[in-house]
Amino acid sequence: MSSSGLKESPLALPPKAAPAANEKDVLTNFFLAATAASLASVITNPLEVVKTRMQLQNELVDSSGRAVTRVYKNPFQSLALIARTEGIRGLQSGLNMTIMYQFMIAGTRFGLYEPAKRALGVEKGQPGYLIKNYLAGMASGAVSSFTGNPFYLVRARLQASNSGAVTRGRHVYTSAFQGFKAVYQSDGLSGFFRGIGGAIPRVSFGSATQLSSYEFFKDMLLARPYLGYQFQDKTVYLHLGASVLAGFFCVTAMNPFDVISVRLYNQPLDPQTGKGLLYTGPIDCARKTLMTEGIRGAFKGWTVQYIRLGPHTVFTFLFWEQLKLAYDRVMHPHE
């Protein structure tokens, strides 16, 4: 009997629990993550320029040949060379596109990650927890590849524009606006999704590895002390440690796909058919790269990719976590 003297109905549903303060809707997660990734991009864009040029250098040239000219020998030499010959504009080539690309792709990935986890019934500690997290990251990454592809395509071509004769099939753009205009005039709306076949696996695997491994390493670091130090939840040290580890695995998973994507975006096109002259698609690009350049061709730019994506992952997660905490303090000041 209840205190009112009435028997509670056996069919009565329990009251719906109020959402926790840290549970945010898709749009909130989108804008917090998009802002974090955009801020990180300003810091890491010069390394994105170097990565793009190193991946396009001596494209489809037999790596065993002794006469191969390597203008960009390593990340640090490449940074110095671009700074000396092109200045800050060369180092920050395509920055506006980088920010727009990261705003769209990171916002979509992070914004859809939690809904995808809920749809898959992810419960921490339950069987299949890590696999479901990975699948959720792949799903959000696949969607984000479509929202980010137009910006990635124009950015890749902008950053390759001043890279000289060591790259092939360059599309020379003087500005982002001119790049969008040129793509639309030559290929229409479909031109903005050129290379999407290479972008989907690249972003899907990269997103899945980055998001799921970051969550995994956070839990791992909180589980027990390491070298006598116990990490605490919601601290910069925890976010720093987890993001450094996540960045390593993310780069390794996505680098081969990144090489393929960059080459598909930058290959010369048949003026009559609009089709690529070097590759028919991502599988053909992967096959030709492996046949002529070996496995090293698939991992071209790995070092600079990690030097870029490692800090980018760290800064993105650090900014994201701090923005979430700030949002909670403003929106839920008494919790």
TrEMBL record:
Output the superkingdom of the source species: Eukaryota
- Which family, according to UniProt? Belongs to the mitochondrial carrier (TC 2.A.29) family.
The protein's matches in InterPro entries, at most eight in alphabetical order, are given as:
MCP_dom_sf (IPR023395), MCP_transmembrane (IPR018108), Mito_Carrier_Antiporter (IPR051508)
Q: What is this protein called?
A: Mitochondrial carrier
Spell out the Pfam families in the cross-references. Mito_carr
Q: Where are the Solcar repeats?
A: 24-119, 128-220, 234-326
Q: What is the lineage of its organism?
A: Eukaryota, Sar, Stramenopiles, Oomycota, Saprolegniomycetes
Question: What is the species listed in this Swiss-Prot or TrEMBL entry?
Answer: Aphanomyces invadans
Mention any one GO cellular component term assigned to this protein in its UniProt record. Answer: mitochondrial inner membrane
Cite the entry's keywords alphabetically: Membrane, Mitochondrion, Mitochondrion inner membrane, Repeat, Transmembrane, Transmembrane helix, Transport
Q: How does it sit in the membrane?
A: Multi-pass membrane protein
**Subcellular localization, per the record?**
Mitochondrion inner membrane
